[in-house]
Amino acid sequence: MREIGIGLLGLGNVGAGVVKLLKDNAQAIEARLGARVVVHAIAVRELEKARPVEVDRDLLTRDVAEVIARDDVEIVCELIGGADRARSAVLEAIARKKHVVTANKLLLAMHGEEVFAAAEKQGVDVYYEAAVCGGVPVIRTLREGLASDRIDAIYGIVNGTSNFILTSMASVGRPFADVLADAQARGYAEADPTLDIGGGDASHKLAILIMLCFGVTVDADEIFVEGIEHLDPIDFVYARKFGYEIKPLAIARQVEGEIEARVHPAMVPQTWLLADVPGAKNALYVHSYALGASMYYGAGAGMMPTAMAAVSDLIEVARNIRAEVAGALPLRSYQALVHQPLRDIAELRCRYYMRFSVVDQPGVLGRITTVLGNHAVSIAQVVQEESARPSRPDGDDTQGTERPVWVVVLTHEAREGNVQQALMQIAELDVVVEPAAVIRIAQYIVP
Hints:
Elements: E1 3-9, H1 13-24, H2 26-33, E2 36-43, E3 60-61, H3 64-69, E4 75-78, H4 84-95, E5 99-102, H5 105-122, E6 126-127, H6 138-145, E7 151-157, H7 160-172, H8 176-186, H9 194-197, H10 200-214, E8 216-217, E9 224-225, H11 233-241, E10 244-255, E11 258-269, E12 281-288, E13 292-299, H12 303-322, E14 338-339, E15 349-358, H13 364-374, E16 379-384, E17 405-411, E18 414-415, H14 416-427, E19 432-441
Parallel strand pairs: 1-2, 1-4, 2-3, 4-5, 5-6, 8-14, 9-11, 11-19
Antiparallel strand pairs: 7-10, 7-12, 10-11, 12-13, 15-17, 15-18, 15-19, 16-17
Helix pairs in contact: 1-12, 4-5, 5-10, 7-8, 13-14
């Protein structure tokens, strides 16, 4: 039987999952492929480290270049993460005419153009299903399933850590710091969770999705990003009173010939399917010209879901090798990509939730609404506490007339630039105790 050799770079959780799947499902893979997929070498940092799976010690090496250079390795599976080392390894593999499977969203967000150009020049495949939404096959869906359609907009929950934290805050009413600590203890959040909770991880994934959906490349660091760490338990209480759930969204739309891209927590109507995506799950809502609305949901992270996506890519590349069409098929949704600057976030138009902490005295609401009106921000609904703050979910129920009170405002659709100018002016009022909490309200707006 034909044997297709794999060189694995990295043996962390996902790498271990790849080894396990290839071993446990070997018979089924051979039946589907008509060939045997065999791991011939694995590059690791530490040879003696304990692994989640049993691996033949003779397969391990610290030398990445040695794995890539082996004659019996036809596909290099890059799972080392990061940008610089991964870029060097992937480009070296491509230069040696090795096909590449990667789960590295940072690599593709930062160096995707270079990687794809090199692969096309050498006539090799680069597959990357595991880079976005783990085990949910969104890459293949956008590249192949919707190839005949025209995508207008995407709304996604693409970071499981952030979604787990916000789901927990909504259900238990505890402060962000407490829920983050719990997520770290359970293994849902890294020791340094900055990329997850700050939105950086989601922005890298969104850059890849924009390439697939709209045929353009964008700089990931130009995507508007706002983290989730400023959210307070009371915001979840008000959200549900108004008929919303708070979710960490990655959004990209075509607006007046430009690409609008943003990552931030948003109030999602409870009638949306995205509002029901729980815990560490991922989901991508797509609106397209022919199909209309469709949504893709499942496990977006973890050892086995991400490994499943990587192994599926290995099988697909192996199938291309068997059919002698490897390197001949499109690596993206579009053959030719152009670089496009993103639409200025100041031009975003949406509705807003605003929570102000103010001194409890007459006339405060009028001063706030006057400033909003002067900046063309129209108010849809206002909730003003008559005396002390309402009971907080975190247990801070201190009473007293000197305590600040909350004024909560829902706006009609407004321009982001106007909203930010109004908020800066309101923050300077002597009756305002602390900066306003602001959450954008999500709405499906398509051409």
